[in-house]
Write a structure and sequence with these properties.
alpha/beta; 21 strands; globular; binds xanthosine-5'-monophosphate
């Protein structure tokens, strides 16, 4: 598989670069900036991209690049800080000129070489930098400038080294994808061959190599991620796979039955259905703190999988539908922890099972493409995401049967109305949250003191960022009056109008 690796220097956009490269149908993966050069070489990448980053090359804590990278003989593209670190390592000059550039900027292409081959000589690009390269290293020619950056683009075609100050990965650089394509197809001589079919073939081969003849169990939730992971593993190991569906009592109304029906209609794999409601709710009694809830649920899932694995005898592997966004939010060495996803940061340290995670490097929309190709029906492919810890992280404060019942009923109404309005698929997620406060109302001339329900609906491409959905007022009115009239214990409905960042999609 032809691979282009992105070395992450801590920019917000690093993973976006890898994603854009994959959109050009070349496999790409992000690795830490200081991955040993021998390890990088062992992966035989066709090219490397150095990401941007918040630091200055002259800062005391600047992230340094091992110059041996440039001796590997493979093309390297430095973006923003990546360009500066390239210039600095190879003897060029980087200066704090006092003329930073932020936002849309006009770029003049002074020479069409590789990066701007066949592209307009004047174009808009998106900048975000304070330092600038003022003298390129020997052997580079300046191929683009802006008003404040005398060296906005530099290229050394003999050595296959390229630097660009602006961000080709963001949509505000209209020719950004073309610039990346020129690097991928002209400099790295890649072929655009990474398709959904090749993702499937590569994952099946990798699973076979990892699992060999051992038995495997898969934690199935009914969502698109775990279903897709199960189908991939089934292709690789066939009868050595058993799926396990754990009903932790934190599911939505009628959900368990729907998951089992869908499974029986579309999978030909044995399914064990575990009813563990009392076990989970018991462990959550008296627990208010979100991270504690997540850890308890993450651990309980694993303990159940371990128990079932022992019963089946000889099971060594557990398949999870973990996505890249779960991994990054749970915190990596270079990225802060936002919340412990139950299947990553919420895992106990002492686990008997080894993980098989075929989707760990890709995003939801990529999973949906794979799922469609594998033949999952549309209603499963396009099911809105539902977090593993379920309603427990949508009930602020303690999870009790009474509060679960309130949230389940309210959420059922919201789902019904969103579908009726034809909006289900346009929304990344739409759900209700039950906060831990009550307020005064009046119903039938009586005072009430009851919970509010909060409506949360967002649009998103991959859950890394999200915007609050502009639901029609009429729809909001219907949802609000139905919830207040039909759900005992609720006397008020509010709408969450926060984007991510700074908020997150789920409340806990
Ligand atoms: P946040 O709330 O961090 O969520 O913006 C991003 C996406 O991840 C889902 N989510 C989870 N999924 N286990 C999961 O399987 C988890 O622990 C978990 N926490 C959040 C969330 O619903 C959203 O789609």
């Amino acid at each position: 598989m032809e691979t282009v690796l992105v070395l992450d220097f801590g920019a917000q956009y690093s993973q976006l670069i890898a994603r854009r490269v994959r959109e050009c149908r070349v496999y790409s993966d992000m690795i830490p900036y200081d991955t040993p050069v021998a390890e990088i070489a062992a992966r035989k990448p066709r090219g490397l991209i150095l990401s941007g980053g918040p630091a200055s090359v002259y800062a005391d804590d600047a992230l340094e690049l091992d110059p041996a990278i440039f001796e590997l003989g493979i093309p390297v593209l430095g973006i923003c800080y990546g360009m500066q670190v390239m210039a600095h390592s190879l003897g060029g000059e980087v200066t704090r000129t006092g003329k930073g550039e932020f936002g849309k900027t006009e770029l003049n292409v002074t020479k069409e070489v590789v990066l701007f081959d066949d592209l307009p000589s004047t174009q808009t690009c998106w900048m975000s930098h304070r330092d600038s390269v003022t003298t390129p290293p020997d052997g580079f020619e300046i191929t683009g400038t802006t008003e404040s950056s005398p060296v906005a683009v530099m290229e050394n075609t003999d050595r296959g080294l390229f630097g660009i100050q602006c961000h080709p990965e963001v949509v505000h650089t209209p020719y950004g994808t073309d610039i990346l394509k020129n690097f991928l197809f002209e400099a790295c001589e890649c072929t655009p061959s990474w398709t959904v079919v090749s993702i499937i073939e590569d994952s099946v081969a990798a699973i076979r190599e990892q699992v060999r003849d051992e038995k495997v169990i898969c934690g199935l939730s009914g969502g698109v991620d775990s279903s897709t992971a199960a189908l991939l593993v089934y292709r690789a190991v066939r009868d050595n796979l058993t799926c396990i569906f754990v009903d932790h009592g934190l599911l939505r109304k009628n959900e368990a039955g729907q998951v089992i029906d869908a499974f029986e209609n579309h999978f030909h794999v044995p399914l064990i259905h575990i009813q563990a409601e009392e076990r989970f709710i018991g462990k959550l009694a008296g627990v208010n703190e979100p991270e504690q809830k997540r850890k308890i649920i993450g651990e309980e899932f694993i303990r159940i999988f371990e128990e079932e694995a022992r019963k089946l005898e000889g099971v060594r592997f557990l398949v999870q539908g973990t996505l890249y966004s779960d991994v990054i939010e749970s915190g990596t060495r270079d990225a802060a922890k936002i919340k412990s996803h139950h299947n990553v940061g919420g895992l106990p340290e002492d686990m008997d099972l080894d993980l098989v995670e075929p989707l760990r490097h890709i995003f939801k929309d990529e999973v949906r493409n794979v799922a469609g190709e594998l033949g999952l029906p549309d209603n499963m492919v396009w099911r809105q995401p539902f977090p593993g810890p379920g309603l427990a992280i949508r009930i602020i404060g303690e999870v009790t049967q009474e509060r679960l019942e309130i949230l389940r009923e309210a959420d059922f109404i919201l789902q019904e109305e969103v579908r009726r309005a034809g909006l289900y698929r346009q929304l990344w997620q739409s759900f209700c949250v039950l906060p831990a406060i009550r307020s005064v109302g009046v119903m039938g001339d009586e005072r009430t003191y009851a919970y509010p329900i909060i409506i949360r609906a967002v649009t998103s491409e991959d859950a890394m960022t999200a915007d609050w959905a502009r639901l029609p007022y009429d729809l909001l009115e219907t949802i609000s009056s139905r919830i207040i009239n039909e759900v005992p214990g609720v006397n008020r409905v509010a709408l969450d109008i926060s984007s991510k960042p700074p908020s997150t999609i789920e409340w806990e």
